[in-house]
Structures are given as structure tokens and as C-alpha cells.
Fold this protein.
Amino acid sequence: MWFIPLHFSFAFVFLLQRFQQCQLKNSVIAYVSAAALVVHALVRWVCVSKLQFGLIGTMLTLNFSWWVSILGLFGYVTCEGCPDTWKGFSMEAFTGLWEFLRLSAAFGVML
């Protein structure tokens, strides 16, 4: 139950990392990951050592650090980090959504 937010974060972080890699911005991924590691170490120390949350504190810290990484990568992409490829949100992104949902529903039924 405590890892459910972590599973949702995978979809976002892998998408953002792939986008950064396609833009040859691997250093951004490294910097954001290093910042997330520092945040993870500090929050884990507080949750596990000081607040005595134990295993639940470890899981919450892991979820938190993954979402920090997502917010860092998303912030870089949307705040002029990739001006040639990111033009902002548009309704064009939702074209073909109905076909995708029908195909996904059919695949879900097959499972």
C-alpha cells in the first residue's frame, strides 16, 4: 500500500528522463538525481532516526524522493530548459485519445 505512489511516479519519471535523453540533456538528469539523493538522505534521517517511523518512514521517504526528482525534471522542461522542443501544453496532445482509450480498454479486457 505504501508503494502505490511510487508506482505512479515511474510513469512520469521514465517519460521525463527519456525526453531529456533525447534532447541530450543527460547532465540535467544527473544533477536532479543528485539533488534527489541529498533530499532523500536528509528526509530519511529525519523520518527514520529522529521521528522513529521505521519501515513506514523509509517507504514514505522513497516515495518523496522520487516525486522530488519528477518535479525537478518537469520544472526544467517547462521553465525554458528545452525551448526548441517544448512549446507548452496544447489541445493537439489530446487528438487520438479516444482511439487510444478504446485500444487500452480492449487490452485490459484481454488480460
User: Anything to note?
Assistant: The mean pLDDT is 89.
